[in-house]
Predict the structure.
Amino acid sequence: MIDFSSAELGELAVHWVGNKMRDEKFKSFHELADVEEDDTREHLLKYFLSPFKSSETYQFHHQTDLNLNELYAYSKRIFRDKDSFLDFSVEIAKHLYEHSTHPKIAGGELCVCLFKNVNYDNKMISALGIFKSENKEVFLKFQNKKDRFKISYDDGVSSDKLEKGCLILNVEKEDGYKVFIVDTKKNVDAQYWK
């Protein structure tokens, strides 16, 4: 059983991953994302973790040697050496860019995060999250300006609608870790994580 009530957001890197087959770009950033307010951290935790309620789990695998599975190898290095987080978040983004070849996969922000204090089977563990946002929504903003309201808009990602996510728990390393996935687009042809 997984419980996120004590989970904390650690490092967070954001990169842009387009669709290589449509000549969309890949852009990596070599600094961690800046999250200053505690309220923003809480919204991010809810956005990233609340969709993972399913008990269906996966594991990384490879036909000949598990260490040849790129995402397994990157995850293993991050869990072992948190100082390598930013470098390997870039490698994860590059790997997903190289495999974003289905025409239905859209470009978007790729967030790679480390979580601590995730309760899994009554043990506090760390977890690595990989999340992709492809669709933006328009939000209306109402601001009180003296005796009247100013109404404007902005576009962004709804904190209630994680589109694509992969959560890798730092348990059962020898068997390929415990991996949870979320993909709101059930299109069999474009299953991003599998």
Strands lie at 2-3, 8-17, 26-27, 108-120, 123-133, 137-145, 148-156, 164-169, 178-183.
